[in-house]
Design a protein that fits this description.
single chain; about 325 residues; alpha+beta; Four Helix Bundle (Hemerythrin (Met), subunit A); Helix Hairpins; SH3 type barrels; 3 domains; five-stranded antiparallel β-sheet; 5 strands
């Protein structure tokens, strides 16, 4: 057995995807420590608990920061073992340190060192720094497949989510403005300004309806009714988009198309350079985000009639309609049936 360097062993230890027994134990220790820290931050806000166990809270914080700091430095030091683009000793480590989860690790431990060196005497700022320890909870993303699924779904649907949230923001501004002009004269305290009216707009559009602020004029009630009806559909839109993202993201794990249930052979169908199909090969049209074809062709089978190597395009003769269309490898999959 070849010699494994300390740096490589460290990389395997701190890598959550490593299946080694010591790696799994390390992951569970870090997860447990993160959860314990979040619980401690919450309990510290209970005066009598903090008064009775303040020394234990300080000890837990000191030990936790020491462990998290050692883990952070170990990740930076062993980053070169991750390969490109982190294989350069200095530049690679600096680039690795700018990854979102590494930045989150740094922000989660920074408040301890800021208060330790006496970087501030403002009590309000100190309280804000202590609350930043809740960010340690987000470090669980590195170890949780479920939390990573949220990230995948958001990445897949970020464009649609931006459009939906922009529409919601526009509706909020318009609804709040109209309600302000309709109700301000009758209720100057409840609707003091357009920004102040946005509280009513958010509560109404999200269909929460606390009832603390309500329109009393006929015009305001008509506007409120319309806004409530619009909010049912438009404010629920991001949830449906995220649900679609979860379904689409799960297809990369199960190997099945989320729309038609076709089994996908990822090893042969998807690669860095794309698969190559020969004339007379059977293919299946699979519309993805990178496809240029219309979605009506999704799931349709056909045969490769011609291939243009210069343009890397295929002429596909469809089975049912005998129609011919031009496609790239990104539009095609190997049928497994």
């Amino acid at each position: 057995m070849g010699h494994i360097s300390l740096r490589k062993r460290t990389r395997r230890l701190v890598d959550p995807t490593h299946a080694d027994g010591r790696g799994k134990l390390f992951n569970w220790v870090i997860i447990s420590l993160i959860l314990l820290n979040v619980l401690a931050v919450a309990l510290e806000t209970v005066d009598w608990i903090y008064a009775a166990y303040s020394a234990q809270f300080v000890l837990l914080e000191t030990v936790s920061v020491a462990v998290f700091t050692a883990e952070y430095l170990a990740r930076i030091w062993s980053a070169v073992e991750a390969g490109e683009p982190y294989d350069r000793p200095v530049v690679g480590r600096l680039r690795y340190a700018t990854r979102p989860l590494l930045l989150l690790d740094l922000v989660a431990i920074a408040p301890f060192y800021i208060t330790l060196v006496g970087g501030t005497s403002d009590l309000r700022f100190l309280r804000a720094l202590r609350l930043m320890r809740f960010l340690r909870l987000f470090r669980l993303v590195r170890y949780s497949e479920s939390m990573q699924a949220f990230g995948r779904a958001f990445a897949l649907k970020r464009g649609q989510l931006v459009v939906a949230m922009t529409g919601n923001l526009i509706l909020l501004v318009v609804a709040s403005s109209l309600m302000y002009f309709a109700e301000h004269a009758a209720q100057p305290e409840a609707f003091p300004s357009i920004p102040g009216t946005m509280w009513w707009g958010i509560v109404t559009l999200t269909t929460v309806g606390y009832g603390d602020v309500t329109p009393v004029t006929p015009t305001g009630q008509v506007i409120g009714s319309a806004v409530a009806i619009l909010g049912i559909g438009l404010f629920a839109l991001p949830a449906s988009i995220m649900a679609s993202g979860f379904i689409q993201g799960s297809s990369y794990e199960t190997g099945y198309c989320p729309d038609c249930g076709h089994e996908i052979d990822w090893e042969s169908d998807v690669s860095a350079d794309g698969p190559t199909y020969g004339v007379s090969n059977r293919v299946r049209i699979d519309i993805t985000a990178e496809s240029a074809l219309d979605y009506d062709y999704h799931g349709v089978h056909g045969t490769v009639a011609e291939y243009d190597p210069d343009r890397d395009e295929y002429l596909i003769e469809l089975d049912e309609s005998e129609e011919r269309l031009t496609a790239t490898w990104k539009d095609l999959r190997t049928p497994l049936r």
